[in-house]
Amino acid sequence: MHTAKHVQQLRSSYIREILKAATADGVISLAGGLPAADLFPHMLLQEAMLKVANNRQVFQYGETRGYAPLLEHLSKTFNLQESHGTLVTTGSQQGLDLIARTYLNSEDHIAMEAPSYLGALQVFTLAQATINTVPQTPSGPDIKALKQLFESRQVKLFYAVPDFHNPTGISWSLQTRQEVARLCQTFNVTLIEDAPYRDLRFFGDDLPLVSSFCPDHSLVLRSSSKTSAPGLRLGSVTGPEEWITHLIRVKQTSDLHSSLPMQAALLEILTHPGFEQHLCNVRSHYHQRYQALSEAINTHLQSEVSFTKVEGGMFLWLKLAKGDPMQIAKMALKKGVAIVPGSVFYIEEDIQSPAIRLNFSYCKPEQLATAIQLLASVIALPK
Amino acid sequence: MHTAKHVQQLRSSYIREILKAATADGVISLAGGLPAADLFPHMLLQEAMLKVANNRQVFQYGETRGYAPLLEHLSKTFNLQESHGTLVTTGSQQGLDLIARTYLNSEDHIAMEAPSYLGALQVFTLAQATINTVPQTPSGPDIKALKQLFESRQVKLFYAVPDFHNPTGISWSLQTRQEVARLCQTFNVTLIEDAPYRDLRFFGDDLPLVSSFCPDHSLVLRSSSKTSAPGLRLGSVTGPEEWITHLIRVKQTSDLHSSLPMQAALLEILTHPGFEQHLCNVRSHYHQRYQALSEAINTHLQSEVSFTKVEGGMFLWLKLAKGDPMQIAKMALKKGVAIVPGSVFYIEEDIQSPAIRLNFSYCKPEQLATAIQLLASVIALPK
Lengths: 383, 383
Hints:
The first copy, chain A, is of the alpha/beta class. Chain A is built from 13 helices and 14 strands. Helices cover 42% and strands 17% of the residues of chain A. The longest helix of chain A is centred in the last third of the chain and has 26 residues, at 275-300.
């Protein structure tokens, strides 16, 4: 049986191969986007599972929108305005997929930064959207390029990760946030604000959500994967209630609803008195890991590379003075270090300077330092 | 923001309104497709949750295909041939949606029986497929009509529920199973065998899966919702490994993977020594409920209705001698009984004789008897 045309357009991805290789024994992986399993709130998870085991309400079919007590908690926490609503999804990945399925006709124009999150590239490819990209600067998307794009064609959605971007780690400045919001309002573009790393700030002050400057032109994706545990597979979409209602109809057709025991467990975790302390702990460890990584880079790779400092999240984007990142990734893997070449985060030909993505959340500080030493031996090799 | 064209084609469904009304206090609901919550394996669920709480492996991201120990168990239980594989999905609804997304181009022809499962109608509408229907006889689809359809155009998929069909409760005869399999092979049509009710046989002998007669022309959907608990949201797709591989790529884009703690919990339930006894218990109670329902119909409605006996599952299809099922459903709801008019299970104009769907799994025998008494007072009303 032949697959549909839109499935044939999905790139068979090198990142999947490298992620598979990265799980081999003895490989230090800076390749994936995994949170630190050793920092999961195991006591909270355990308590939550025990409580849910006694909750007889969560094993029957439920509402597509989500488990009512969790929805109520989330709406309060997100401080939603009255005309806005929440939908619980199977990870924020499903939220994005539902948005694309609900709102995009094939060939509709969408915009993203370049480079961008691979999972979003896949979603928009499957939806057969026309993908337009704007370059990223150290303070966010190039505003002039974004304005030109919005002027030149009717863009329906602008997908963005303004806090600790994947893959670059960049956080948008306040000014950029306000300017993007204004552009979305002026040109009637819906901002899809993907915020999975937002709670992982370990340096500097929180900045407002971009959507807070254009709430009626935005849908916000949040995830429990980086703050609680990804295995639960829970995220949410919030935005104008009318838009959420349409998403719910498509989610009902997709999977009826997300797991109820998991939703009840997440509520237990989020409302546990120890949850804030857990978050502080994760942030503090990620800070240490980031410092170990950046110090090792400065020690072993200084003349070969450059990078923009990050203030949170899980990734650092290492720009290379020379060399082919794909070759470097393959050679590094032979030395026992897995990394992702930057090219996989671009569509086709808009690749900028050569770079690699380094994840610093998954490995411990000493492993990160070792990894950079090994990587240095590869990058410094004469061509 | 306007929804996509294919979303606008989703019918806003009366069944959703009636299901909402059915949850009101004092309403006896024969409307939904809910299993009996009082028969859920609560001890097994509880034990499973406790065990999983101590399993540190299930909280990290996992493989899209599913939790390896569960996959292994399922493959063995399903007795899969070597060239076939399994994918764990968020309920079998997601399995069906993934098949449509992965294999259907818009306007591709698919076939279904009429009437048919509403969730499948929604999936194929969203995929913009051209839906062809064949009438259902008491032993399965009308074989002559199916052959004519397969001859007249290239049908890509034939979606079917051969065991205890939703909404009619019909089970295909052995001969029909063999004939359908032969037709699928001859005309190169892929059978989508949806088997959520298959383990709920309370009378007569099991018949082979239709796909067992055409394994390389089939994908099989199974669900844990009717045998364990629907809140877990777990099902599976099995079939030729190459086809499963493509489904996995689309699932990765949809939601990365289904909840891992739920998959580990399901494995605990399925391998618990008490699971077979639990299944026997469910079947025996559903048999009692079905008997209470059919006896009440014979007592209170005999001259007004007819129905084909069922040997398992959750539904009975009541054909009416006269009257408008939609009107009857509305009047019954006023009396405190929720039912679903048969018309919602058809596309557009191929509605056959007037009928209503009665669920007998959710309510206890005495409630079912009361419901039919109340329904009789509505159906017998002079027009």
